[in-house]
Amino acid sequence: MKYSNKIKWAFAAAIIVSVCWLIGDIFVAGFDPNPEDYPLFSKTYADQVNVEFATLMLEGSTSRLMFGALIGALTGPLLLPATWLVYQFFKNTKAGYAIFVYWVLLVGAVLSPLGHAGFFYVGEIYKAVYHTDPVAHTYLLETGKGFMKMLNIAWGAAIGVLAIGWIGFALCILFNKTLLPRWMALFTPFVLTLLIIPLKNFLPLPFSGWVGGAIFNIAYLIFFSSLLFFFRKKLLNTYP
Q1: Sign (positive or negative) of CA dihedral 117, 155, 7, 189
Q2: For residues 173 and 161, is the Cβ–Cβ distance under 8 A?
Q3: Residue 176 DSSP label
Q4: Is 68 helix (H, G, I), strand (E, B) or coil?
Q5: Angstrom distance (rounded) from CA 192 to CA 190
């Protein structure tokens, strides 16, 4: 396949996966509940659960949470060509720093689907607690602890690795190691995430929940859209 076609398909993959994960985040975690509205968790079991997570997805139907988890997890492979696309913007793709950033981002991409899908199980187990007789709560709460531990490990690992990769890429932009101007460091996903977080507090429901649940993938979509509209031709002209 010609290099130009590889770039076009990689851009398509990057935009599609960003949109799918944004939608997935909104469906699986795009809620902004008031924990005080659920005293079973905020008071009765407050010492046994993570109250924020226990109440986060109570309003989501099973079909909604499942769709949100699956649209992200099943489009996860598209993160691989999207990551390869980022790698192409290095001036010297054989340099150690370029290879390091590329592989770190690849590892983060591979880890991400499990962490994303884990929200479904956490949401469903705490919905089960909320809607069942108290006699079953002891067992369900213990199961919920296990699901939360799994989510913390899987999602925490993915976010941690991706943070290292995107911070590294932003530094490479600042040190002029890429084809991108230095101001594009502000549009890398990690930096954009930090800039978007405060926005949630100024939005009404349901938009505050949507933004809060999808912050990282809103940043992804902005970043890859910026590459597509402003720097696609520059990349193709540099590597014909």
Answers
A1: positive
A2: no
A3: T
A4: helix
A5: 6
Residue 189's nearest CA partner among 117, 114, 118, 109 is 109
C-beta separation of 136 from 96 below 8 A? no
Q: Which helix (H) or strand (E) holds 29?
A: helix 3-29
Verdict on whether the full-model pTM lies above 0.85: yes
For residue 123, give both structure tokens.
């949401």
SS3 90: strand
Catalogue the E-assigned strands of 17-137: none
pLDDT in tens, the chain (240 residues): 888 899 999 999 999 999 999 999 999 999 999 999 999 999 999 999 999 999 999 999 999 999 999 999 999 999 999 999 999 999 999 999 999 999 999 999 999 999 999 999 999 999 999 999 999 999 999 999 999 999 999 999 999 999 999 999 999 999 999 999 999 999 999 999 999 999 888 999 899 999 999 999 999 999 999 999 999 888 877 765
Among candidate residues 151, 169, 2, 23, the one with its CA nearest the CA of residue 82: 169
d(CA 153, CA 140): 20
Token readout for 29 is: 């975690």
Residue 49 φ then ψ, to 5°: -135, 165
